Amino acid sequence: MEVMEALKGRQSVKSYLPTPVQEETLRKVLDAGRLAPSSYNSQCRRFIVLTDPAVKKAVREKSGAQPMVEQAPVVIVLCATPDPEHEDVMPCGEAKHPVDLALCGAYMMLEAYDQGLGTCWLGAFDAEAVKEVLGIPDGVKVVTMIPLGYHDGTQPRRDRKPLEETVSYNAY
């Protein structure tokens, strides 16, 4: 698949079929996240794959009760691990872990789309509650969760603003 085809076709999926995701397909999605760039090439990340219905239910109950966390066959929890060699803030002033994990998530979501899967970027959850349920140690940050599975086809893709509304040259 061409990259632009994936970019134009991918959407946030909020309703999934119960069809399991094959291990080989899941590995391709996870590997895409592994290949994403990171600040200083530190690669300070950990992906926790949730497939156990009881674990997904516990995470859903502790994290804002979003139904897709329990409904999707797989949920990938993207975590930032401590970087002992660099500060958590990049020279531009932005925290590096949200940027690094956003890149991982974007790579995963595009590969998932290429594999015929749907995803959704989740940010409305209690990160500390998710850490508690999953036994995530202190110093590790839960940045996002991505449900992964086959789209049930009930949700249309939302339009994006035209390029002319989002781009300027040489000044704001």
Structure write-up:
The protein is α+β, with helices and mostly antiparallel strands and 172 residues long. Helices cover 35% and strands 14% of the residues. Strands 1-2-4-3 form a four-stranded antiparallel beta sheet, with helices on both faces. α1 (3-9) crosses α5 (96-114).
- Indicate the low-confidence ranges by residue numbers: none
Strand order of the largest sheet: 1-2-4-3
Helical/strand content category: alpha+beta
Gross morphology is globular
Major beta sheet summary:
4 strands, antiparallel
Q: Tally the beta strands.
A: 4
Short account of what is shown:
This protein is of the alpha+beta class and 172 residues long. Helix content is 35%, strand content 14%. The chain has helices at residues 3-9, 23-34, 53-62, 67-71, 96-114, 127-134; strands at 45-50, 74-80, 118-119, 141-149.
What layout of secondary structure does this protein have?
Layout: H1 3-9, H2 23-34, E1 45-50, H3 53-62, H4 67-71, E2 74-80, H5 96-114, E3 118-119, H6 127-134, E4 141-149
Antiparallel strand pairs: 1-2, 2-4, 3-4
Helix pairs in contact: 1-5, 2-5, 3-6
Structure characteristics:
single chain; 172 residues; alpha+beta; 6 helices
